[in-house]
């Protein structure tokens, strides 16, 4: 009888340990995905900001040949990064693309201004 109790205790301990290891692994995977998504978002957002600034300049004064070349390089870099990220995460079911910001500014009540 003592042997069965010991075996049951070992089984329960092993089950809890396995569940704990799996939970920690899942947590680590989630942290990795969030970290990668944040880093990718920072990179793509910075490039997009530079592209947007160039687009605004195109509308007003236009771009020099050197600025046009830089704009084309930035577009190519952004497209290449997104393609690499897509290839890396392909088949995982993970959407690496960062969430779009919902608001562009802070909303304040009139009495706070």
Automatic annotation (TrEMBL):
<protein>
    <submittedName>
        <fullName>Uncharacterized protein</fullName>
    </submittedName>
</protein>
């Amino acid at each position: 009888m003592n042997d069965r109790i010991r075996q049951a205790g070992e089984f329960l301990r092993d089950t809890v340990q396995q569940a704990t290891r799996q939970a920690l692994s899942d947590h680590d995977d989630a942290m990795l995905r969030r970290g990668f998504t944040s880093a990718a978002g920072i990179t793509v957002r910075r490039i997009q900001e530079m592209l947007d600034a160039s687009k605004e300049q195109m509308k007003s004064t236009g771009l020099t040949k050197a600025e046009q070349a830089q704009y084309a390089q930035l577009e190519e870099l952004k497209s290449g990064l997104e393609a690499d990220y897509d290839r890396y995460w392909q088949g995982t079911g993970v959407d690496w693309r960062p969430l779009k910001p919902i608001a562009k500014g802070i909303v304040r009540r009139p009495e706070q201004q």
